[in-house]
Design goal:
Layout lengths: L19 H18 L3 E5 L1 H7 L5 H4 L4 E3 L2 E6 L2 H6 L4 H15 L6 E2 L13
Parallel strand pairs: 1-3, 2-4
Antiparallel strand pairs: 2-3
Length: 125
């Protein structure tokens, strides 16, 4: 089963990046969705969703690397639309999908990840 959701529940004007306040307002709703669905793996598409699990990380560094945070596996990826805007990312996105398949097949083991203690964690954890 696959379930798709977003960090924020409405599109920002002009399709701009979401503001911290917008993410904060939508956090309880997203947390409740995750609690109800209880997914084994969360695939974060893009840097905004990745930031919830891996604050202060760069997507260019952590994409395609599954990590376990509080008994849940997160798999950060570039948003597929990034490959449309930057064709040079297409092979990277395709390789990450291959790694995701390996993860789901049990051939790729996630590393344990503990966010730095000075980073305020959202209620997701």
């Amino acid at each position: 089963m696959v379930y798709i959701t977003n960090v924020i529940k409405c599109r920002p004007p002009g399709n701009r990046d979401p503001l911290i306040e917008e993410v904060t307002i939508c956090t309880p709703y997203l947390d409740q969705q995750i609690e109800i669905i209880n997914p084994q793996v969360i695939i974060t598409l893009g840097r905004h969703s990745m930031n919830r699990a891996f604050p202060d990380e760069k997507i260019s560094v952590v994409h395609g690397q599954p990590r376990k945070v509080n008994n849940r596996v997160y798999f950060p990826m570039y948003h597929p639309a990034a490959a449309l805007h930057q064709p040079s990312l297409r092979s990277t996105v395709e390789a990450d999908f291959d790694r995701l398949r390996a993860l789901l097949d049990g051939k790729l083991i996630p590393e344990d990840f503990t966010p730095p203690p000075d980073v305020e964690q959202l209620s997701l954890f």
